[in-house]
Amino acid sequence: METLNLSILFYSFAIYYKKLITLNYIIYFIMYKKFLDLGLQPLANKYLSKKDLIKKKEHLYHLEVGFNKKSKLVSILKNISAEKMFDNKYPYRSSMSKTMRNSFKKLAQKVTKTFDPNFIMEIGSNDGSFIKNFDKKKIISIEPCKNVANITKNMGYKTYSNFWNIKLAKKIKSKVKNIDLIYAANTISHIKNLNSVFKSINHVLSDKGVLIIEDPSLLECFKKVSYDQFYNEHIYIFSLLSMKNLLKKYKFKVFNIEKLSTHGGSLRYYIKKDSNNKFRTSKKVKEQLNREMKFGLNRFLTYIKFSRNVENSRKKLRAILSKLKKQNKKIIGYGSTAKVCTILTFCKIKSDTLDYFFDTTPNKIGKYIPGSHIYVKKYSKPLTNEADYVFLGAWNFKKEIFNKERKFIKKGGKFITHVPIPKII
Ligand code: SAH
Ligand code: TYD
After folding, report:
1. Nearest-angstrom CA–CA distance, 172 and 161
2. Ligand 1 mean position to 315 CA, how many Å?
3. Which of 1, 177, 349, 396 is the most exposed place for a label (fewest CB within 10 A)?
4. Nearest residue CA, atom 17 of ligand 1?
5. Continuous H helices in 116-193
6. pLDDT confidence bin for 118, thresholds 50/70/90
7. Ligand 1 centroid, distance to 339 Cα (angstroms)
8. How far apart (Å, rounded) are the C-alpha atoms in residues 408 and 402?
9. Which ligand is closest in space to the CA of residue 103?
10. What is the rounded average pLDDT of the residues 125-131?
């Protein structure tokens, strides 16, 4: 009898939960106007072992992207639980690129000089590439993936292995009062509940404090047709337009911005509380808003055009690869990014086209890329004659990679990129 009751309870919950998900989907469809359909896509950082491949254990989600005409926010439409994406096997490591290490170091020097904060909190601190530039006593780091959080814990940094939310904010506020700087790079775009994000930040940030957010720029993404910025972890791709509208609700204001070349073109937003008169608004803010308006980021037509550009990009890339394969060329991939997962799945590129990918990330090596199931090999030395052509998965680090592979290039080795248009370089 007890088992029956439990089953009924479980069944009712399942129906209720399913309804909730469906309801959420409907609400999203009303709020966001769909402009891009990237088909069924896996979770981009869920690398598969050989065993997983045999068991055919891979979940696919419909990756559709929409534009909110009112807030100008761009978001994927599916709601995937954060616990599924950010678990104790999360493979991504910020420190794998010298470009990122240098970018974090430069920012650390700048914030110390400009803001001289008492305490600094980083949301999504990953392997500590930013915080390692500071004295341990000054830092509070938040990283939900336990395997990754252990890295900064072992380095001696105070690390909360939790998702950022109001409960955690209250806990931290009860211990530390003067958090004058909060930094979140490539993280806010990964968090669905923005209301909780900003309310929690508001709770802990000191009145004179500064919030620095850094994320891929929608304008750059559209200009470069880098549709690979869309994957299931990237819930939002922000523009200054949407960021400004969003922050208004929480009485925050962008007072400066920086354009970064990292991650294919990012924006770094310097944000203060409305009540804080310490900082004057830079003219760079207005200039960026003008650029975004001029490009048409406020008009749905621009989004339709982008979607057409994506389709053309897919056709061109497939044509280049298929021509090379007909000539019996050997092609491999370089940099098994989360972004490339979208490209490979959307363009239906598999291991009969790209033999394997080279990558430096320990937790990706020896595994298979989600969706396309292309093998990831350990990168240990600059390329010599491993392939005729190399597809740049980490195109955002082209400069760093080309510098490393200058001998291969000098010897006639060729790279292929899809950004801004698919071509051989
Ligand atoms: N800041 C680093 C890492 C970016 S990857 C960099 O710029 O290189 C995104 C990171 O955000 C991951 O380490 C992930 O675990 C973390 N993250 C995801 N959701 C989060 C949340 N709700 N709260 C805090 N961190 C989160
Ligand atoms: P990245 O572009 O940082 O992010 P995302 O996964 O969010 O798209 O990923 C870079 C990947 O490329 C990472 O797996 C490390 C790898 N990589 C190399 O293998 N060699 C290199 O020289 C560089 C710069 C990156």
Report:
1. 13
2. 33
3. 1
4. 124
5. 146-154, 166-175
6. very high
7. 16
8. 9
9. 1
10. 98
Q: Which residues line ligand 1 (CB under 6 A)?
A: 82, 86, 90, 92, 94, 100, 123-124, 126, 142-145, 148, 163-164, 185-187, 190-191
User: Is the beta carbon of 339 within 6 A of some atom in ligand 2?
Assistant: yes
Question: By C-alpha distance, which of 379, 369, 308 is closest to 48?
Answer: 369
Q: Does residue 7 surpass a pLDDT of 60?
A: no
The pLDDT score that the predictor gives to residue 17 is 57
- Edge to edge, the sheet with strand 61-67 lists 33-41, 61-67, 74-76, 236-237
Best CA proximity match to 389, nearest among 343, 320, 340: 320
CA of 6 relative to ligand 1 center, distance in Å: 37
pLDDT at position 1: 46
pLDDT in tens, 321-359: 999 999 999 999 999 999 999 999 999 999 999 999 999
Query: Percent of the chain having pLDDT more than 90?
Result: 91
CA angle 89, 93, 95 (to 5 degrees): 160
CB of 44 within 6 A of ligand 2: the answer is no
Does residue 355 come out as left (phi exceeding 0), alpha (psi in the -120 to 50 range) or beta?
alpha
Which of 45, 84, 86 is the best mutation target for the ligand 1 pocket, counting ligand atoms within 8 Å of the beta carbon and taking the most?
A: 86
Q: What is the pTM of this model?
A: 0.93
Rounded to the nearest angstrom, the distance between the alpha carbon of 115 and the centre of ligand 1 is 24
pLDDT digits (tens, 9 = 90+) for 155-190: 999 999 999 999 999 999 999 989 999 999 999 999
- Within a 10 A sphere around the Cβ of 381, how many other Cβ atoms? 6
**What's the chain's length in residues?**
425
As given in the structure block, the two tokens for residue 349 are: 């590129």
Q: How far apart, in whole angstroms, are the C-alpha atoms of residue 335 and residue 328? A: 23
